[in-house]
Amino acid sequence: MSAPDTTNSPDELLDLVDAEDRVIGTVRKGDTERNPELVHREVAILLHRGGELLWQLRSPAKTVAPLTWDLACAGHVGAGDEPASAARRELLEELGVEVELRALERRLVRQPSETYFAYVFAGALPAGATVHADAGEVAAVEWCDEAGYRRWREDGRRLTHVACELSEAWWAGRWAPGRGGPAG
Question: How many domains does one find in the chain?
Answer without folding.
Answer: 1
